[in-house]
Amino acid sequence: MIEQAMPVEAIAVTGLVKRFGSQTVLDAIDLHVPQGQVIGLLGLNGSGKSTLIKCLLGLLRTDAGSALVLGTPAWDLADREKSRIGYVPQRETVDWDFPVSVSDVVLMGTYGRLGWFRRPGRRERDLAGESLARVGLADVAGRQIGKLSGGQQQRVFLARALAQQADVYVLDEPMAGVDARSQELIFGVLSELRDAGRLVVVVHHDLRTAAQWFDRVALIDMRLVAAGPTATVLTPENLERTYAGRLDVLDELGRAVAGRGRTT
């Protein structure tokens, strides 16, 4: 009998430790996630969520342990391999006054697959246009990025990630300061990516929408408190351990989890 090879996990984090000077920010993190999921990273501000995704993106080197993305150590990802990871940063890290149009921002998502000596052509421009249409912003393609609302700006950066045609998508607080319409649209696109077999990792803060939209969640407070299917992880006990009693939404959350139509 021939054994079939197990699929490579999209993310495989083992014993990850990250320090800044003498301060340990992440300690002994173990997190293994396959493709075809939308996973939320939840925890208080300063709990290490954004640091974890920077390690996954290869922006930070770990002090111990390993972080594999698509089977390769994140720190060692070559430029071509990095194009397989689409990244949507926090809004406050972006210079919104930079004189660039919406369409040009989205077109940047195609650069990683072009290499150093090729310029975007018709195919790349068509892909950028399709990505903008997918997030409902085809009509603002020529506008300067800073002229858009917060929700629209976040959708533009999601379109840029879509134009990469990546295998893994990482979003850092994509719902912060976003209107209800944009939030619904963004989560809808993320669900489509999941259904197409992609992995989507989202740093998130709203527990009620987490119960509604995420297949899996990971609760982080410097260490990994719990990780797994949303309905089994978002329990009062795990939330108390993560948030140290600083919760006022446990009842609403419980109802949301109980009424959630699909778990994975």
Average pLDDT score: 84
**Strand percentage:** 15-25%
Oligomer: single chain
Percent helix, as a range, is 25-40%
Rounded radius of gyration (Å): 19 Å
Whole-Å distance between the termini?
30 Å
Number of helical regions: 11
Low-pLDDT ranges: 1-6, 260-264
Strand order of the largest sheet: 6-7-8-3-9-10
Give the strand tally: 10
The H/E string reads EEEHEEHEHHHHEHEHEEHHH
- The rough form would be described as globular
What does the main sheet amount to? 6 strands, mixed
Short summary of the structure?
By secondary structure, this protein is of the alpha/beta class. It has eleven helices and ten strands. The two termini are 30 Å apart.
